[in-house]
Design brief:
The chain has 188 residues and is mainly α. The chain has 11 helices and no strands. 55% of the residues lie in helices and 0% in strands.
């Protein structure tokens, strides 16, 4: 039922709004609906928009795709739906940050595990040369650090400024993370 309501909204949005000088809903308003649906996990709305022709790889002004937004906002069902529909699960935003990097920042351990199932490059880098492991270390995400290293992430990889996951943790004064990284590096 929700799917049909979404289609009706889309069809109505293409028509002039009564009493408003012929103003119509713009593609910008549809884009806001699309990205909000991804953030909020509203699969029915995304389904309606995609079926109506919304490009699955559409990007907002920051370069975020619906997949990146859904992952960052811990919307597992939406992530699965978008992946099944062919979303580029390894894509980065305008700064090169991937969904995996976003969940390292946000701290969603279950989502991090789910994203690793899509087999993207474990040491993919953003425009600054940073990896998901570096972000997880920077923000003290011990579970994600352990998970990423167990999947082959390189502790010794350096970003564009010469920082590694260990040096980033040191800069944050997170000695516990430094110890975790050194221990995992020596056992890996």
């Amino acid at each position: 039922m929700k799917y049909f309501i979404t289609i009706i909204i889309l069809l109505a949005s293409a028509l002039p709004m009564n009493g408003h000088s012929g103003e119509t809903y713009s593609s910008e308003k549809i884009a806001v609906l699309y990205f909000d649906a991804a953030r909020k996990g509203q699969v029915d709305i995304l389904q309606g928009l995609i079926e109506a022709g919304a490009p699955i790889e559409a990007r907002n002004k920051k370069g975020f795709t619906a997949f990146i937004l859904a992952a960052y906002n811990n919307q597992a069902e939406t992530v699965a739906y978008l992946a099944d529909k062919g979303a580029d699960v390894c894509a980065g935003d305008s700064k090169g940050n991937t969904a995996q990097m976003g969940v390292a920042f946000a701290g969603h351990d279950d989502m991090a595990r789910k994203l690793l199932g899509y087999n993207c490059e474990i040491d993919a880098v953003n425009n600054n040369g940073q990896t998901a492991l570096m972000m997880a270390a920077l923000f003290g995400r011990t579970n994600q650090v352990q998970l990423l290293i167990s999947r082959g992430a390189r502790v010794d990889k350096k970003d564009g400024l010469g920082n590694s996951a260990i040096s980033l943790a040191e800069q944050q004064g997170n000695q516990k993370m430094v110890t975790v990284l050194r221990t995992l590096r020596s056992t890996g």
